[in-house]
Design brief:
Number of strands: 14
Structural class: alpha+beta
Order of helices and strands: EEEEEEHEHHEEEHHHHHEEHEE
Helix content: 25-40%
Radius of gyration: 19 Å
Number of helices: 9
Shape: globular
CATH architecture: 2-Layer Sandwich
Distance between the termini: 16 Å
Largest sheet: 8 strands, mixed
């Protein structure tokens, strides 16, 4: 028997990616910049043993749906191939936040799985190798390997089909927050991966989205380094709504919001008009995240909690990277 466990935190993209340059290799079409969160976590234990006659997967103490089990089994097969073993595995994974609802559970999930599965298989992978492995499960998973502010690049078209992965700033660099309003915990009907492919194939806005992306990355990267929220916030909102414009212009349209999402967005904008500075970002789900300075986070959180239908509010600071557990 071989076993290992790891814990990874969710990350939220401030500059989004939406679309694949190569679907089979899960290569992102654009770079992205994210903040790793402090308390939204996935803990995963992987055990390889001769007693298993197939891969088994448990999510939050329940047997995983067959489609999820097969997807994780394919991921474990990548690890088995790298390690030169033929043992089936048991995966036991727990999220302390809603799963598949626009809170980056796939990112933290596959980051934790990449570390725990590779260690259980006897591998000691470099960060670059872990990034390449984690990306096979989720395009945003490499960002959860690192703490603070992280930039995931795109494949340069040469060599080993690796994407660059760099920390822009550490967890201690900037006393900033992402206040997260949970506006619905149901699993989304269209996954991010399926939605990205629909947009790539059908949205008239997709090429323009790709064309303007490097400008947004440059602006955000510099704003993070300079700790300038008044420069970072507008480009974060712009990236968010460009992504959702691409999704909405897909055929058929992709709408990940609900009425509570819209109410939360409007609340943030009205607060900003009064001098309480916060900026909206939303992923492929109904949850609203608000980028703000720490001094404003409590007041913004209280305002969001008061919106009818908001189920929970998290007040997140920059968190650390993946941990191998004893």
């Amino acid at each position: 028997m071989r076993t290992a466990a790891a814990r990874a935190r969710a990350n939220i993209a401030l500059i989004k990616y939406w679309g694949k340059a190569d679907k089979s290799l899960n290569l992102p079409a654009t770079g992205s910049i994210s903040m790793t969160l402090s308390s939204l976590q996935t803990t995963t234990r992987v055990t390889f043993d001769t007693k298993f006659d197939r891969d088994e997967v448990s999510l939050n103490s329940s047997q995983a749906p067959e489609g999820v089990r097969q997807r994780i089994s394919r991921f474990l097969s990548l690890v088995r191939s790298m390690a030169g073993i033929d043992l089936f595995g048991q995966v036991d994974s727990h999220n302390n936040f809603p799963t598949a609802a626009g809170l980056a559970s796939s990112a933290s999930g596959y980051a934790a799985l990449a570390v725990s599965a590779s260690r259980a298989a006897g591998l000691d992978l470099s960060r670059s190798d872990l990034s390449q492995l984690a990306r096979q499960g989720s395009g945003s998973a490499p960002r959860s390997l690192i703490g603070g502010f992280v930039e995931l690049g795109i494949w340069d078209g040469r060599g080993t089909q690796r994407c660059s992965l760099d920390q822009i700033a550490s967890t201690k660099h900037w006393d900033i927050r992402l206040v997260i309003a949970v506006c619905g915990q149901h699993e989304k009907k269209i996954s991010s991966g399926s939605g990205m492919e629909r947009s790539r194939l059908t949205s008239d806005f997709y090429e323009q989205w790709i064309k303007t992306h490097n400008r947004d990355l440059d602006t955000a990267r510099q704003a993070v380094k300079e700790k300038d929220i008044s420069r970072l916030g507008p480009v974060v909102e712009s990236s968010c709504f460009k992504m959702h414009a691409v999704a909405l212009s897909s055929q058929p349209p992709l709408l990940y919001w609900n009425p509570i999402t819209v109410a939360a967005m409007q609340k943030v904008w009205s607060l900003r008009e009064t001098g309480l500075e916060g900026y909206v970002t939303i992923d492929a789900g109904p949850q609203v995240k608000v980028l703000c300075e720490a001094k404003n986070s409590k007041a913004i959180a209280e305002q969001l909690e008061a919106i009818p239908g908001v189920e929970k509010v998290f007040n997140e600071q920059p968190g650390s990277g993946v941990e191998l557990l004893q």
